[in-house]
Structure formats: structure tokens, C-alpha cells
């Protein structure tokens, strides 16, 4: 069984991933893989170099994520181009890790994919699990976490699909608006409904 874990910024997705990992379910993390596929020498690195030029790299040759972010955040066409370069490589590596984990005998694993719904990838998982919080909680936590202004935090939240909209695509939802213990209990209850027992 493959659980597709998704959410939004400051929605508590990492907390749920940690609980699942603690319970012995391996996590295939799209964000980690996204960082790996752009390392120097990798095919995607060369594609980025030829399309965006040297301005998106540090002096030591590593990718300057902030510089790249500034370019694609304000240019939809370039953002689409970046996605076309990144997604096939990320998907290929996720599938490779999945096959390895299944070969090792794991029956249940987690695909941690922030943009699972936006990228229309819900078909690659058996269940979609959404980390959810109310927008006011999301805003407060993001401002505290990143020490950002309300305007900056709202801009980042609104650049993503609203969590309210993602609810429609989820098989189960953990509301992380309250205490961590409550989130853990919700998660254990959902897993039990899917035939997986864990010790809370």
C-alpha cells in the first residue's frame, strides 16, 4: 500500500511524516529527491544551466535556490519549464526507491509529495492523506516559523492550492490545528480504518 501524504506550507505535514516514520513506514520524500536531482553533474543540473544560465548558481557551482525561486516565482512560463525538467527526474527516482523498498519486504510506504494534488499525481498512490489546518492557524504558524510579515506569509500561502480545496481530493484528513497528541490519535485511527494497526 502506498500512502500519498500531502498538505500545504505550515500545515503539519512533516509532523505526520515523522509519526509514520516512527511507526516503521519508510518515507519517499519528493522534496529531498528534488534537491538531489539538481546536484552538479546530474542531467537536470545541465538542463537548468543551459536554460537559465549561470545566474542561478553559486560560485562553487551549486544551485542557488533563492535566485532560481525569484525567477520562476514571477514568471509562469519559466516555472512551467522548470517543472518539465524536474518532474520526470523526481518521479523516476521515487519509483526506483519504491521498487527497492518493496523488494526489501515493506508492505506499506509513504510518498511525501507537497504538490500531489496540483500535479495530478493522486493516481500513483492508494490513499491520499491530507495534513490540514485552518488558514488563520496556518498564517500564524508560518509567521512564527519563518519570522515573516503577515504580507509575506499570506503571499506564500496563496501561491499554493488552498487546503480547503485539497480536502476534496483526500481520502482522509488529519486536522493539525490543535495539539500534537490529537493529530497522532487521528492518524492512528485513519491507519486502523485502512487495516494498519500502530501503537500510539
Automatic annotation (TrEMBL):
GO terms for MF: ATP binding; dephospho-CoA kinase activity
Coiled-coil intervals, chain numbering: none
Stored CDD domains: DPCK (cd02022)
Compartments in which it is found: Cytoplasm
Encoding gene, per UniProt annotation: coaE
Reactions catalysed, as given in the entry: 3'-dephospho-CoA + ATP = ADP + CoA + H(+)
Enzyme class: transferase
Function, in words: Catalyzes the phosphorylation of the 3'-hydroxyl group of dephosphocoenzyme A to form coenzyme A.
Cross-referenced InterPro entries: Depp_CoAkinase (IPR001977), P-loop_NTPase (IPR027417)
GO terms, biological process: coenzyme A biosynthetic process
Naturally occurring in which organism (per UniProt): Geomicrobium halophilum
Protein keywords: ATP-binding, Coenzyme A biosynthesis, Cytoplasm, Kinase, Nucleotide-binding, Transferase
Annotated pathway: Cofactor biosynthesis; coenzyme A biosynthesis; CoA from (R)-pantothenate: step 5/5
Gene3D superfamilies hit by this protein: P-loop containing nucleotide triphosphate hydrolases
Pfam families: CoaE
Keyword Membrane: no
Ligand binding (ATP): 10-15
EC number, as in UniProt: 2.7.1.24
HAMAP family: Dephospho_CoA_kinase
NCBIfam families: dephospho-CoA kinase
GO cellular component: cytoplasm
Family listed: Belongs to the CoaE family.
Superkingdom of this protein's organism: Bacteria
Name the record gives this protein: Dephospho-CoA kinase
Amino acid at each position: 500500500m502506498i500512502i500519498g501524504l500531502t498538505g500545504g506550507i505550515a500545515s503539519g505535514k512533516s509532523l505526520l511524516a515523522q509519526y509514520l516514520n516512527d511507526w516503521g513506514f519508510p518515507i519517499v520524500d519528493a522534496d529531498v529527491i528534488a534537491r538531489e536531482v539538481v546536484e552538479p553533474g546530474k542531467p537536470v543540473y545541465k538542463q537548468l544551466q543551459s536554460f537559465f544560465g549561470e545566474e542561478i548558481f553559486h560560485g562553487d557551482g551549486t544551485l542557488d535556490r533563492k535566485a532560481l525561486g525569484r525567477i520562476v516565482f514571477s514568471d509562469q512560463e519559466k516555472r512551467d519549464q522548470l517543472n518539465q525538467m524536474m518532474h520526470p527526474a523526481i518521479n523516476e527516482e521515487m519509483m526506483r526507491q519504491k521498487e527497492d523498498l518493496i523488494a526489501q519486504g515493506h508492505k506499506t510506504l509513504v510518498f511525501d509529495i507537497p504538490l500531489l494534488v496540483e500535479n495530478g499525481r493522486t493516481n500513483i498512490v492508494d490513499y491520499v492523506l491530507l495534513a490540514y489546518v485552518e488558514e488563520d492557524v496556518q498564517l500564524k504558524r508560518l509567521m512564527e516559523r519563518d519570522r515573516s510579515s503577515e504580507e509575506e506569509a499570506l503571499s506564500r500561502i496563496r501561491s499554493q492550492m488552498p487546503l480547503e480545496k485539497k480536502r476534496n481530493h483526500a481520502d482522509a484528513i488529519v486536522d493539525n490545528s490543535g495539539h500534537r497528541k490529537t493529530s497522532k490519535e487521528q492518524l492512528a485511527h485513519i491507519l486502523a480504518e485502512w487495516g494498519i494497526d500502530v501503537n500510539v
